[in-house]
Design brief:
With 284 residues, the protein is mainly α. It has one domain. 75% of the residues lie in helices and 1% in strands. It has twelve helices and two strands, in the order H-H-E-E-H-H-H-H-H-H-H-H-H-H. It has helices at residues 10-35, 38-65, 75-92, 99-106, 109-113, 119-149, 160-184, 186-189, 193-206, 218-227, 235-242, 247-281; strands at residues 69-70, 73-74. The protein has a two-stranded antiparallel sheet. Helix 1 (10-35) crosses helix 6, helix 2 packs across helix 6 and helix 7 packs antiparallel against helix 11 (235-242). The longest helix is centred in the last third of the chain and has 35 residues, at 247-281. The protein is globular and about 60 Å long. It starts with 9 loop residues before the first helix and ends with a helix.
Length: 284
């Protein structure tokens, strides 16, 4: 009997390889786009570092008033929470993205709909390139500053590093999806300043940027964690980084992130489909 060699069916290969190349090219373009803003990068990293000192001393004062342990975080965990959070702020990017809303307002979004790449996929690829650049230029400086001036908690379990990496990627996906949905309200409202202000005010508090969500009572924190995507943006990756809980709970939190990533991206495609139908009805 002759040997049988498993191969990828030609139709699948023809579809996947060009799609992957296109996605990679858009991601690289997003990386190059943000790498041109060198002065803004330096200014942003400096600002995040300055606010890192302020937040760090505030939380250390809270820990000192609580006997060295605040909501289950010791001093080293609180310091790590602050500095890693300052680095992740630009990687996840809670605010400052209005590309889709601006193109809807000007009508340029029509050209996006004529391209062979779905708008959600195109904007996601560009955002991943942005996040990759921010990881190198906006994440590293604050973390290194924290290592120099404070005693950070380094990982003590081998599983923490890969779980943290996966958690950060999922946080980027979820945050992109949320920002896309906020921008997409321009299809119906034209002016997105209202939804954008609500997102800006709510995301920072509910994501754990200003203080760990575990400072809140359980009857608020648990529903917030399970019923909204906000804690998955920053709180979850930061809790994984500081090893606030055991490996099983860490894996469970990342699984919740995975659920929200799938749900939010699915919502983006659904909203985009409905928006395209609205444009057709309006004669766009």
């Amino acid at each position: 009997m002759g040997s049988v060699t498993a191969t990828v069916p030609p139709p699948i290969r023809r579809n996947i390889i060009p799609w992957f190349r296109t996605f990679t090219a858009i991601t690289e373009s997003g990386f190059r786009r943000y790498s041109t803003y060198r002065q803004a990068t330096v200014a942003g990293a400096f600002t995040n570092t300055v606010f890192g000192f302020l937040r760090c001393y505030v939380l250390l004062a809270v820990a000192a008033g609580a006997g060295g342990l605040a909501a289950g975080y010791d001093r080293a965990q609180l310091v790590t929470f602050v500095w890693v959070g300052q680095g992740l702020l630009a990687v996840v990017l809670l605010w400052g993205w209005t590309d889709l809303a601006d193109r809807i307002r000007t009508g340029d979004v029509v050209s996006d709909l004529l391209r062979p790449v779905h708008p959600v996929v195109s904007y996601l690829a560009a955002d991943l390139g942005r996040a990759g650049y921010a990881l190198l230029t906006r994440f590293v400086p604050p973390v290194l500053t924290g290592l120099v001036f404070f005693d950070l908690r380094l990982p003590t379990r081998w599983s923490t590093v890969p779980l943290f990496a996966v958690s950060v990627v999922l946080a980027v996906l979820i945050c992109f999806g949320c920002r896309y949905l906020v921008n997409a309200t321009a299809y119906w409202l034209q002016d997105v300043r209202g939804p954008m202000i609500l997102w800006t005010l709510g995301s920072g508090v509910l994501a754990g940027l200003y203080f760990p969500l575990r400072f809140l009572p359980d009857w608020i924190a648990v529903p917030l964690w399970l019923l909204t995507p906000f804690p998955s943006l920053l709180q979850t990756p930061l809790d994984v980084a500081v090893e606030r809980t055991g490996p099983a709970v860490q894996s469970g939190m990342v699984a919740v992130q995975l659920f929200w990533a799938g749900l939010v991206l699915l919502a983006c495609r659904t909203v985009q489909r409905r928006a395209e139908r609205r444009l057709v009805v309006q004669g766009g």
